[in-house]
């Protein structure tokens, strides 16, 4: 019995169960593991608001306007406004006094008044310093007129005053209680010497406001955003129309307590709410609330 003929051998190798070796990641991008950050929630389970944009952030007109409302900046520019208002009021009062004195010197009735007494002393030999208050008397339309607590500007070239001394004055013809012993009105420059001290102080307060505002704008533009949890909410005398929020870090390992200001147009947060703060690196006490600028 003969053997059946063997089938012809295929020139191709038999298929293998194993895949042929290939170059690692040839023709494709290696898989990358994506780790999603855990979602922040408040104590009541409410999800945290979305974080602000990544730095650098744009300085919009709203951001620039809000930077003036931060309590630290507001205090200094309000102080500047108050100081300038005081200086303006003082300047107006002195300008009115200058006009009144100039009018009295030009149109006042010249009269020789007499020092009646100085500190209850009526002796002519009693001498006092020129700035000692005294009492003047003079005749006006046949009647004796007395003016108490007068500090004279002109002492007839002497370095003292005494009872019985004659003092030339000019009196308003319509009001004898309005008078002056000056021969020419005191210049405005001399009148504003005391008030001029206010101007350097107001420049200092304005500079402080500008520097603090510049720092806040820089924090908003480049500072990192960090989630915080609301601890307490109260009103402040410095910002009565805003919410002063006391916050504690929402991230584990941080314990720094921060106080920030939220404008009154925003809803009042409750304890446990998550808010985003933007702060300079390593300076939590200079943080600002992101929601106030969005």
Description:
The protein has helices at 61-67, 71-107, 188-191, 198-222; strands at 109-117, 134-140, 143-150, 166-172, 175-180, 225-234, 243-249, 258-262, 274-278, 288-289. With 294 residues, the chain is an alpha+beta fold. The chain has a five-stranded antiparallel beta sheet with strand order 3-2-1-4-5. It has a five-stranded antiparallel beta sheet with strand order 8-7-6-9-10. The longest helix is centred in the N-terminal third of the chain and has 37 residues, at 71-107.
Largest sheet features: 5 strands, antiparallel
Radius of gyration equals 42 Å
Strand percentage = 15-25%
Strand order of the largest sheet: 3-2-1-4-5
Give the low-confidence spans. 20-38
The portion of residues assigned to helices is 10-25%
SS content category: alpha+beta
Whole-number mean pLDDT: 82
The number of helices is 4
Q: What gross morphology would you assign? A: rod-shaped
* Total number of distinct structural domains: 3
- The number of distinct β-strands equals 10
What is the rounded distance between the termini?
98 Å
User: What order do the SSEs take from the amino end to the carboxyl end, as H and E?
Assistant: HHEEEEEHHEEEEE
């Amino acid at each position: 019995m003969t053997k059946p003929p063997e089938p012809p051998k295929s020139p191709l190798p038999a298929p293998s169960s194993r895949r042929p070796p290939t170059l690692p990641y040839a023709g494709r991008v290696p898989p990358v593991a994506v780790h999603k950050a855990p979602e922040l929630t408040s104590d009541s389970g409410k999800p945290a608001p979305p974080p602000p944009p990544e730095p650098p952030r744009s300085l919009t007109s709203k951001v620039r306007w809000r930077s003036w409302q931060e309590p630290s900046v507001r205090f200094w520019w309000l102080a500047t406004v108050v100081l300038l208002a005081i200086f303006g009021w003082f300047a107006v009062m002195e300008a009115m006094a200058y006009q009144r004195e100039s009018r009295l010197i030009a149109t006042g009735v010249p009269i020789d008044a007499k020092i009646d007494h100085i500190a209850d002393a009526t002796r002519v030999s009693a001498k006092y310093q020129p700035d000692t208050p005294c009492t003047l008397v003079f005749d006006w339309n046949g009647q004796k007129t007395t003016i108490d607590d007068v500090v004279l500007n002109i002492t007839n070239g002497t370095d003292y005053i005494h009872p019985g001394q004659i003092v030339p004055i000019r009196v308003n013809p319509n009001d004898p209680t309005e008078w002056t012993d000056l021969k020419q009105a005191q210049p405005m420059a001399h009148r504003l010497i005391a008030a001029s001290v206010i101007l350097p102080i107001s420049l200092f307060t304005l500079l402080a406001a500008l520097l603090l505002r510049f720092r806040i704008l820089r924090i908003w533009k480049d500072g990192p955003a960090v989630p915080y949890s609301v601890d307490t909410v109260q009103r402040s005398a410095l910002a009565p129309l805003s919410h002063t929020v006391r916050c504690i870090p929402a991230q584990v390992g941080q314990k720094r307590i921060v106080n920030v200001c939220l404008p009154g147009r925003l809803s009042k947060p409750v304890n446990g709410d998550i808010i985003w703060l933007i702060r300079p690196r390593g300076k939590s006490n200079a943080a600002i609330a992101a929601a106030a600028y969005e």
